[in-house]
Design goal:
This protein is α/β, with parallel strands linked by helices and 128 residues long. The protein has helices at residues 19-30, 57-64, 78-87, 102-115; strands at residues 10-14, 34-39, 47-48, 51-54, 68-71, 92-95, 120-122. It has one domain: NAD(P)-binding Rossmann-like Domain (Rossmann fold), CATH 3.40.50.720.
């Protein structure tokens, strides 16, 4: 298996303000991951322990240069979150969320293959 990220990779957490996103985002930061931003449309302009929160992935990428995303949002929103990340220029997307509908998975997988062939997807329902 190829190495998709290294110590220089900048990661945006989609769902950093939620309980699981916060826990794992801060834990991964403590382990050396460059968690440079989080996203939450309703909490933009705030921060989680010094990590800035943006309304969109595009805003986070523009401000930080992030190239990877880790998705910790509820299953019904994952389809849109994956495409939002790809459209913002994210090249490696990790979807931690479990319970994503199979139809949604098939849809965004095929959309990525067709429209964003340079994007790597790990998940959903994976520990990263």
């Amino acid at each position: 298996m190829s190495i998709f990220i290294d110590e220089n990779t900048k990661v945006v957490y989609q769902g950093l303000t939620g309980s699981q996103g916060r826990y794992y985002g801060l834990l991964n930061r403590d382990y050396g991951t460059q968690v440079v931003a989080g996203t939450s449309p309703s909490k933009a302009g705030t921060d989680v322990d010094g990590i800035p929160i943006f309304a969109t992935v595009a805003e986070a990428v523009e401000a930080t240069g992030a190239t990877a995303s880790c998705i910790f949002i509820p299953a019904p929103g994952v389809k849109n979150a994956v495409i939002e990340a790809a459209e913002a220029g994210i090249k490696f997307i990790v979807v931690i969320t479990e319970g994503v509908p199979a139809h949604d998975e098939a849809w965004f997988y095929n959309k990525l293959q067709r429209d964003f062939p340079d994007v790597q997807l790990l998940g959903p329902n994976c520990p990263g």
